[in-house]
Fold this protein.
Amino acid sequence: MKCPKCQTIVPDRSRCGACSFPFYAQLDEAKVLHLATHPDGKSIRLPSGRFISIPEDHNLVPMIMPLTHAQKNKHLLMALLFLVLIVITLMVIGYLSLAVDIGFIWVFVVIFGLALSWQMIAHLIDFFNGEAEVYVDRLIETERYCARYERRRIYYFGYFEQLGRVSISVNDHYAAIPGTLYRLSYAKASHHLLDVVQVDSR
C-alpha cells in the first residue's frame, strides 16, 4: 500500500519505513475509538497488530448508480466465462457417462452446474439492470495474505471502518492509502465487487 505522505509503496505495517509517517494519523480517531468499543461488534486483528471492532451489520446506505461501460463489459465477460464452464462441464460429463458408470457423481455435477448457472444468470441480470450499489467508507489498512497450504495463491484484503474486511485486487492493494475514503461499487444481483475508487477529497 502507499504511504499517505511520501506515496512510497511499503509492506503491511502501521508506519512508513521511508518517512516514518504513522498511517493512522489520517484516520478519524473518534470513529475508530467508537468502533473499538462497539458492544455488538466483532473483534478483528489488523495486519499491524492493532485490534478494532467492526459492527456485525454496518449502517451504510448504498447509493444506486448506473454501471460504467467498463463495469457492464465485466459483467458480460463473466457471464460468457460461466457459460463456457457450463458447456465444458456438460461435455466432460457426457463423455464420462458413455465411458464409465459415474453413479452418485451426478448429484455433485447437478449442484455444480446449478451454481455455475446461477452465477451466469446473476451477471446477466446485473448487465441488463445496469445499476450498482455504491458504498463510501474509510480504509484503515490493507493486507497481503498467503495461506499456509496455498503458497502460490495470494489474497489481498482491505479493512474498512464499516464494511470490515473486503477482498480487493492486487492493484487496489498497492494503490491503497490508509485513512482515505473510498467508493466501493457492488453488483446488485451477483454481489461482485466491481471496483474500489478513491474519493476525491478536494
User: Anything to note?
Assistant: Residues 63 and 192 are 16 Å apart (CA to CA).
